[in-house]
């Protein structure tokens, strides 16, 4: 039983690592400006939705990361130190069109301080925030709120190429609406990387990043070619995975 649990734990860790790599490189971006760190749990949960979380503790750091990440949404709490949170919201709204979410404590738990807290959240709304979420932040609530923003986030969880639909949230693949047998993790990663660039070419290095991350973690030999061969057999005539010698692979389907 212990040996089986060890394999299960290793697989879960591999899945989590993949989700984080995927969300960081191709996912939607969420900037959280909050002095109370909770980024680990939230980042892991949001990665399952295809959202990469950047968490900073002050509005000054928030300005830096806003320019660096160009986030789909910004979650800011009135208690964030630095420049006042409402000024921060006004500044980022003038330099782009981010979907701003105000982070608030549950007013029922604040007692006499609830009026002041409500006023602080109200100032963020006046400055340009469009929604409010309560702490501690729940990934599903944030995902639903972000889904109403001006920049689509749903495409980061699902990819479609012709009749193939891949859902990285549920780790499922459907062909012509019918779910196929679950792919092993590496083949799932490979298929997603190819679908994201279809019908373009994905280099061997980029595929290595998608499957194993850093160079020192990559196996030797023809590991990519082995996974491609297995993927081809699973897809059958649905898609063509081509090898361009010395460059990489591409996936194409008729009509896509």
Characterize the structure shown.
Helix content is 44%, strand content 21%. With 256 residues, the chain is of the alpha/beta class. It folds into two domains: 153 residues, Response regulator (Rossmann fold), CATH 3.40.50; 96 residues, Orthogonal Bundle (Arc Repressor Mutant, subunit A), CATH 1.10.10.10. The strands form three sheets. A five-stranded parallel sheet has the order 2-1-3-4-5, with helices on both faces. Strands 6-7-8-9 form a four-stranded antiparallel sheet, with helices on one face. Strands 10-12-11 form a three-stranded antiparallel sheet. About 2% of the residues have low confidence.
CA-to-CA gap between the ends?
A: 46 Å
Q: Can you count the helices?
A: 9
User: In sequence order, what are the helices and strands, one letter per element?
Assistant: HEHEHEHEHEHEEEEHEHHEE
Spatial arrangement of strands, main beta sheet: 2-1-3-4-5
Could you say which overall geometry the principal axes of the C-alpha atoms support? Answer: elongated
> What class do helices, strands and sheet pairing give?
alpha/beta
**What would you report as the Rg, rounded to the nearest angstrom?**
21 Å
How many discrete structural domains? 2
CATH topology-level name of the largest domain: Rossmann fold
Strand content: 15-25%
Query: Largest sheet, if any?
Result: 5 strands, parallel
CATH class of the largest domain: Alpha Beta
**Mean pLDDT figure:** 80
Within CATH, the superfamily of the largest domain carries the name Response regulator
Number of strands: 12
User: Which spans have pLDDT < 50 for at least 5 consecutive residues?
Assistant: 109-113
Question: What is the helical fraction, as a range of percent?
Answer: 40-55%
Q: What is the correct CATH architecture of the largest domain?
A: 3-Layer(aba) Sandwich
């Amino acid at each position: 039983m212990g040996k089986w649990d060890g394999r299960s734990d290793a697989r879960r860790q591999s899945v989590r690592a993949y989700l984080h790599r995927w969300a960081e490189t191709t996912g939607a971006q969420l900037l959280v400006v909050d002095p109370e760190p909770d980024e680990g749990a939230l980042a892991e949960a949001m990665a399952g939705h295809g959202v990469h979380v950047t968490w900073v503790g002050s509005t000054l750091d928030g300005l830096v990361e806003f320019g660096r990440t160009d986030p789909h949404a910004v979650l800011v709490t009135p208690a964030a130190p630095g420049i006042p949170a409402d000024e921060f919201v006004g500044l980022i709204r003038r330099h782009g069109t981010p979907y701003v979410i105000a982070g608030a404590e549950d007013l029922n738990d604040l007692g006499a301080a609830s009026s002041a807290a409500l006023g602080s959240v109200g100032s963020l709304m006046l400055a340009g925030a469009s929604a409010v979420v309560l702490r501690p932040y729940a990934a599903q609530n944030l995902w639903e709120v972000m889904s109403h923003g001006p920049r689509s986030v749903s495409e980061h969880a699902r990819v479609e190429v012709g009749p193939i639909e891949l859902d990285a949230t549920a780790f499922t693949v459907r062909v012509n609406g019918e779910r196929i047998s679950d792919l092993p993790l590496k083949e799932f990663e490979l298929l997603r990387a190819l679908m994201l660039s279809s019908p373009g070419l994905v280099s061997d290095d980029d595929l290595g990043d998608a499957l194993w991350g850093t160079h020192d973690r990559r196996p030797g030999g023809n590991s990519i070619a082995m996974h491609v061969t297995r993927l081809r057999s699973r897809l059958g005539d649905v898609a063509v995975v081509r090898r361009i010698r010395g460059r990489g692979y591409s996936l194409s389907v008729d009509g896509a």
